[in-house]
Sequence to fold (662 residues):
Amino acid sequence: MRKTLILSFCLLCMTAMGQKSKSTTVSELWLDEMGANKIETGWSISQANKSIDSNPLTVGGVKYERGIGTHAISKVLLNLNGTASKFSALVGVDDEVKSAAASMEFYVLCDRKVVFRSGVMKKGDAAKEINVNLKGVQQLALLVTDANDGISFDHADWLNARIAYAKNKPTIAGIASQKPYILTPKPSVSPRINGARITGATPGKPFLYHIAATGNSPITFSAEGLPEGLTLDKETGIISGKADQEGEYIVKVTARNEVGTATRAMKIVIGKNKLALTPPMGWNSWNCWGLSVSAEKVKASADAMVSSGLINHGWTYMNIDDGWEAPERAANGDIVCNDKFPDMKQLCDYVHAKGLKIGIYSSPGRLTCGGYLGSLNHEQQDADMYAKWGIDYLKYDWCSYGEEFDKTDKSHAEYVKPYTTMKNALAAQNRDIVHSLCQYGMDNVWEWGSTTGQLWRTTGDITDTWQSMSDIGFSQTQNTQYARPGSWNDPDMLVVGKVGWGPSLHATRLTPDEQYTHISLWALLASPLLIGGDMSQMDEFTLSLLTNDEVLDINQDPLGKQAVCVSKQNGKEVWVKELEDGSKAVGLFNRGDNTNVADLFNWAQKESVSTGIKINWSELNISGKQQIRNVWSQKNIAIQDQAFETAVPLHGVVLVRISPVR
Ligand code: GLA
Fold:
């Protein structure tokens, strides 16, 4: 660790009497000493004194000892507290970039005002110098944009970047500028039945459904109208067995405790192609553990799913992502687990005993994206093994399948082929296995995904930045019509709680407002909800985001519609999801004005950044008196007959449910 370079000098300040001298110590703090990994980057993680690809910092053929390599779109907000005097740096495109496509623009902002703009910089350009006077400035923001041509190859360096300051050492603001605030009310002590109101299974294949319910324990359960072959465990609320008879069964489910009773009708559908009738809800290991996932971590996560109470809100799947496979197959070609997963069958049994389900990961290619063994030419054998272990869900990730694809005519059929092969291999099993396609949206996967599976990723990987989350979430427009029960667009997993994609974790870099946007938007989009954070380290705020049953009801609504954007103007967007009971879930989002780069930051001074957003009944195709219910706070807030208008914080949301007053 480098030591802060201290430059001390004396300012001779003559007092009014002209007799005394005072000294002010000016210190210098280098950006690379402030915690490089806290800087938001559009790709990978920044490190001190290295490029984003971990090479020495080099711009325009010149090597620099100090600085930070980032990737557009990147940003960081620093607290100066008014005692800094100067920011100096050089900026440019790192020479490690091979492609001429790299183009970016650097900005420096002081208290919302742009004070430096580099103009578009390209590979090979000499570094540009920045010298900014910071007198009286409270917050300094550093930004690299993609110059409006996408972020490909945008490796951006801040070189020799440092701040001269007098008293208060500058710090990275991170999300500290906004304190978490909880809107979700505590669940009532009397029972409430939560989770999916419809679920399906194939005739003759094992059925597993845990009735999610909150309220004081112990809760006992009963169910009337179960299909023959299924039984309910009254203490755990787990319905299991095998039903042979096709049909739609309306089951009256009751949960009772010492305080009260709750009853709800749910539908069990026994038939072919009836999996994932609501978007899958659960956890996936990738956004927290990356390739360091292990059986122990999955077990601990399943334990936490129960002990945190998340299971009582409908969270079900425990999905192991990449990193479980051994380097070689067995002599007979069987896939084998690596040392971190000593007994996959036992792990599956452990998870099932809690009423939860378990997922696994592979690639149609030779290797997975993490370089582990894929299923190429072993599809049937792998599906057989998954079924033997007791797997309920497979994420099938394109990765190195590109090698095979490149040998073909690259037609539509060639995109579909690997997923059809696995679909058939899964269908041949004696248990239901949900098929989750992961090929990042190629060939408009939403148009054909449902012929091979139940859900499909629509974009590249999400990361825990506003840019990534909001770009992905708000871009889900051309695929809307393809979402329906059993067929879901998947804009990737949730980046809440402690994430890290590897052994070391950090708190999500999304602010609380941004996290409300994330969960509200994913609920409206009927997206699969897979928690990306470490289950065993859920703080109260994160839990509050994931246990709001009225928000989750929007996501799990049996109609299975995906929200559409009905109004979009200067960063204000209104998204509407039709619900089964005829009401509408409406999200009013304030993305900020993209033409104003200051709006990309969460400045400490917030007053000016809430925006009024209004939605007229004509835009919602409704008329007359409507009840407006704030979904996060679970309170009726108004009755209106023409429009609804509310203040929405920057990067935040107001999520309401609008229903006719009868
Ligand atoms: C790809 C996927 C991720 C994750 C990793 C695993 O990047 O998009 O979600 O599964 O592979 O290596």
Q: What stands out?
A: Residues 206 and 242 are 5 Å apart (CA to CA). Residues 286, 321-322, 368-370, 397, 438, 461 surround alpha-D-galactopyranose (CB under 6 Å).
